[in-house]
Design a protein that fits this description.
Layout: H1 2-20, H2 33-64, H3 80-110, H4 123-131, H5 136-160, H6 168-177, H7 214-222, H8 228-232, H9 234-237, H10 244-258, H11 278-282, H12 289-293, H13 301-313, H14 319-331, H15 344-347, H16 349-354, E1 358-359, E2 371-373, H17 377-381, H18 386-398, E3 403-405, H19 415-419, H20 423-440, E4 444-447, H21 450-459, E5 466-468, H22 469-478, E6 493-496, H23 510-517, E7 523-525, H24 554-564, E8 569-572, H25 575-587, E9 595-598, H26 599-606, H27 611-614
Parallel strand pairs: 1-3, 2-3, 2-4, 4-5, 6-7, 6-8, 8-9
The structure holds iron/sulfur cluster (SF4) (2 copies).
Residues 233-235, 242, 244, 284-290, 300-301 line the site of one iron/sulfur cluster.
Length: 615
């Protein structure tokens, strides 16, 4: 921030120094008198601050070396010499700028003109002190030397920029302007080609460098190599072979090598198997932490999805994903279970006696309802997660919602299918579900699954509006329709884990917290990484079937964060988070000391049932 602000302040002065080189009496229009003096003071301090920042940055690069600057051997080589050279060049510009200001003031003083004082304790102020006893001709020469050196450094930097990391100073302006604004979305297979014309696209995804969009190439040039993305990437944290920073650096190095400024392109090569490894591309959970952290809005998810599309198009699918993808194609769920079993959790006799869930499959005789509860695969089929389905149904029933589920005609939302690059399969699932949703006659959709929520909200079109159950509960709590019993054990300390597809991708941070805070006696603490900095628990959907190489599980890192925060109950609002976290509690050896519960389950447990009559 200081460097950036310093550059802004110094930009005008740099041009004025260049013009002073050819016109000795040049003054910046509008900056004469006291305005000019205030500007001079500001620039003296700006040059000093930027110089000090360069020294600090060089010390960090050369002496302290924060871990995130390191370049693991698997990712190639870093560019420390380039970084140090640039720091030195900018430092030289700051020194010559300050020296020029000091010499200019010393000349004017010795010539008998009234000169405004230079900024106290600035570099210019210190240089002027050393020049007071120097002879006038020598100061003239030093002033000229400073001017020439400053101008040379400036012009050199301008010409050198496109050849290295400094290019980001120029490209990032455009990169930020053209950044994607819609969160939670995935770019189409080909911009400008509608889904109905995709059969005319000969090759899906990115296979060679030239397949990247111009925006993604601009991303490569705009990276400042700061390492924030990789520092916050959960895959990188747990030792998976993925560091988003190096997705960019390797792409940029490739473009410099294969498209030299002088000479011809030396042809392209496949990216996966060339500069990227298969495991690297499959290791991403699409959690969005890298994009949230990047100060220059470099995009990763779309690039990774496009690289996956390219691999899928070539039939290059990891062994462990082949079975669930086939099952999704044939049975509409990754577990290969029969469609007629999809609603078993809801139609079981004991449950129907307490909560009559309608089946909105458009068949005569089955009911109609304004609200459709879209259950999705994991809550429908996983024995443990069915409890979240029952809790969600109980809550909707409690608040007097007329609702139903699609039952056997529902298929997987396809959220992860799309993010794993299987666009054609996703389109088939979407087409089927869109038809089923429309046939149900529902006017709105509720789901307990953030992945389904994200898919229905961003990947589907022309369907009723969708809400996550946490939004519904929060609203009904505020309306007084939901009241809670106090928590049974006051010893429990709760913490809320933000699911990536509810938080970062859809900005729903407060509703679940407000629900928890409405439960009397519930003690809640925040983990060190929460809200937009939440740490992915391991990813959902097909990620559950993929076994990457890693040193430890993301979920284990997450439950340790909860323990460090002093919590012994982790509340999630996503069935996939529940799978990962409950598993991680066992792996971390915290069984008996820590538990996990879904928000809907907790609400269902704490709700005051007989308040319904009082409403
Ligand atoms: S989306 Fe998440 S897992 Fe993927 S590269 Fe970014 S931070 Fe890492
Ligand atoms: S956070 Fe952005 S600028 Fe920094 S290394 Fe990552 S992609 Fe580059």
């Amino acid at each position: 921030m200081f460097i950036f602000a310093g550059f802004i302040v110094l930009a005008i002065r740099t041009f004025s120094v260049l013009i002073l080189g050819i016109s000795d009496n040049f003054g910046i229009p509008g900056l004469s008198g006291s305005a000019g003096h205030i500007y001079d003071i500001l620039t003296d301090y700006a040059a000093t601050v930027v110089f000090l920042c360069m020294v600090i940055a060089a010390v960090r690069r050369l002496v302290f070396k924060p871990a995130r600057y390191a370049v693991p051997a698997t990712y190639g080589k870093g560019h420390p010499a380039d970084a140090i050279f640039l720091l030195a060049l900018i430092a030289l510009m700051m020194v010559t700028d300050s020296f020029f200001a000091a010499a200019h003031a010393a000349v004017r003083t010795q010539e008998g003109f009234a000169v405004e004082p230079l900024a106290f304790l600035s570099l210019a102020w210190a240089f002027k002190k050393t020049l007071l006893s120097t002879s006038l001709p020598t100061i003239w020469n030093l002033r000229l030397g400073a001017c020439l050196l400053h101008a040379s450094a400036f012009y050199f930097l301008m010409c050198y920029r496109p050849f290295g990391i400094q290019f980001h100073v120029i490209t990032s302006i455009f990169n930020v302007y053209f950044a994607k604004l819609e969160r939670g979305t995935v770019k189409p297979v080909r911009w400008g080609v509608g889904d109905q014309h995709l059969d005319q696209v000969q090759s899906f995804g990115v296979k060679k460098f030239e397949d990247f969009t111009w925006k993604h190439m601009l991303d490569f040039y705009s990276c400042a190599d700061c390492g924030r993305c990789s520092d916050n990437c959960p895959a990188n944290t747990v030792g998976r072979p993925l560091s988003p920073r190096f997705i960019t650096i390797k792409g940029r190095d490739y473009s410099f090598q294969h498209y030299p400024v002088f000479g011809r392109s030396n042809g392209s090569m496949p990216l996966v198997g060339g500069i990227y490894s298969e495991d690297e591309i499959w290791s991403c959970t699409t959690c969005g932490a890298c994009e949230e952290e990047c100060p220059l809005l470099v995009e990763y998810i779309d690039k990774i999805v496009d690289l996956r599309r390219g691999m899928i198009d070539d039939g290059n699918v990891p062994q462990s994903l082949q079975k669930p993808l086939k099952a999704l194609e044939s049975r509409g769920n990754p577990y290969g279970k029969m469609a007629k079993k999809r609603a078993d959790w809801a139609t079981a006799k004991e449950f129907q006696e307490t909560c009559a869930v309608k089946i909105l499959d458009g068949k005569n005789g089955n009911g109609r309802a304004d609200t459709l509860y879209f259950v999705d695969s994991i809550t429908s089929y996983d024995d443990r997660m069915q409890s979240i389905g029952r809790a969600t149904a109980n809550i909707l029933d409690h608040v007097g919602e007329e609702f139903g589920i699609l039952g056997a005609v529902e298929k997987d939302s396809g959220h992860e299918v799309r993010r794993f690059g299987e666009e054609t399969l996703f389109m088939a699932l979407r087409e089927h579900n869109t038809g089923a949703i429309k046939a149900s006659g529902a006017k709105r959709i509720v789901t307990n699954d953030p992945h389904a929520y994200n898919a229905l909200k961003h990947d589907y079109e022309d369907i009723p509006p969708v809400e996550h159950i946490s939004q519904v509960i929060s609203r009904e709590v505020k309306a007084g329709k939901i009241k809670f019993h106090p928590v049974q054990s006051e010893k429990n300390v709760y913490t809320y884990h933000d699911p990536c597809y509810l938080g970062r991708h859809n900005q729903i941070y407060e509703d679940p917290r407000q629900v928890l805070d409405a439960i009397p006696g519930l003690k809640r603490v925040e983990m060190s990484r929460c809200r937009d900095r939440s740490f992915c628990c391991g990813g959902g959907g097909l990620m559950l079937f993929y076994e990457p190489k890693e040193d430890q599980r993301m979920g284990v890192v997450r439950v340790k964060m909860a323990a460090e925060a002093g919590a012994n109950v982790i509340v999630a609002a996503c069935p996939f988070c529940m799978v990962n976290i409950e598993d991680a509690i066992k792996v971390a050896g915290l069984e008996g000391k820590m538990t996990a519960i879904d928000l809907a389950e907790l609400v269902d447990k704490q709700i005051v049932r007989d308040s319904r009559t009082a409403m």
